[in-house]
Amino acid sequence: MTAPAHLFAGNDGLAIGRGALRQLHASLLTHAPDHAVTILQEAGYASGEGVYRSFCEWLPGQAGVDKPEDLDAAVFSEVLAAFFTATGWGMLTVAPLGTGALAIDSADWVEAEPGTAQMPMCFFSSGMLADFLGRLSGETVAAMEVECRSRSDARCRFLTATPAVLQRVYEEMTQGRSYLEALGA
């Protein structure tokens, strides 16, 4: 049995809900549109540590291991999906994509507001995933949303990779290539 999401607030003892995250988006886009993306990404990145601690607290009871590094690689994606579902972020899948990237996909990601934007909008989540996955891997990780339900895509898709890989993908996308082409997928 999975515990309710509010029980996984981490050692910081604080969690925000869907409504608060959406209000943060709305307020920033209204009152500080030139800074909204950066603020949301930085706030998300700062939340990664708490999400990581929550994951570490959740692991023993749900995955039968004491530390993330004890997880069998064969069940990593399944365990990660169970955690994010249990804590209210949404159902997701994790899979390698092209050369050197992971794709994190969700058809019900909490930050998305379907049909409200012209571009991917899950900036908070991008920052959170970068910090969280960096802590899990012990490496610097970057995250970039390339598909988003907020712009009426069927799913939110985050690419995670080293900063150099995602910088190359971004540069190639600005030159008209798709992220799939840039990753050789």
Give an account of the 3D structure.
There is one protein chain. The model is unreliable at 1-10 (pLDDT under 50). Helices cover 46% and strands 12% of the residues. With 185 residues, it is an alpha+beta fold. A hairpin with an 8-residue loop joins strand 3 and strand 4. The protein starts with 17 loop residues before the first helix and ends with a helix. A 4-stranded antiparallel β-sheet has the order 1-2-4-3. It has helices at 18-31, 36-63, 76-86, 123-137, 163-174, 179-183, and strands at residues 93-97, 101-106, 142-147, 156-161. It contains 6 helices and 4 strands. It has a single domain (17-183), classed as Trafficking protein particle complex subunit 3 (Muramoyl-pentapeptide Carboxypeptidase, domain 2, 2-Layer Sandwich).
Helix content: 40-55%
Sheet-strand content, in percent, reads 5-15%
CATH class reads Alpha Beta
Distance between the termini: 37 Å
**Number of domain units:** 1
The major beta sheet can be summarized as: 4 strands, antiparallel
Instruction: State mean pLDDT (0 to 100 scale).
Output: 90
Overall body shape: globular
Short description:
By secondary structure, the chain is of the alpha+beta class.
Write the layout of secondary structure elements.
Layout: H1 18-31, H2 36-63, H3 76-86, E1 93-97, E2 101-106, H4 123-137, E3 142-147, E4 156-161, H5 163-174, H6 179-183
Antiparallel strand pairs: 1-2, 2-4, 3-4
Helix pairs in contact: 1-2, 2-4
Supply the key terms.
185 residues, alpha+beta, Muramoyl-pentapeptide Carboxypeptidase, domain 2, four-stranded antiparallel β-sheet, 4 strands, 46% helix, globular, disordered N terminus
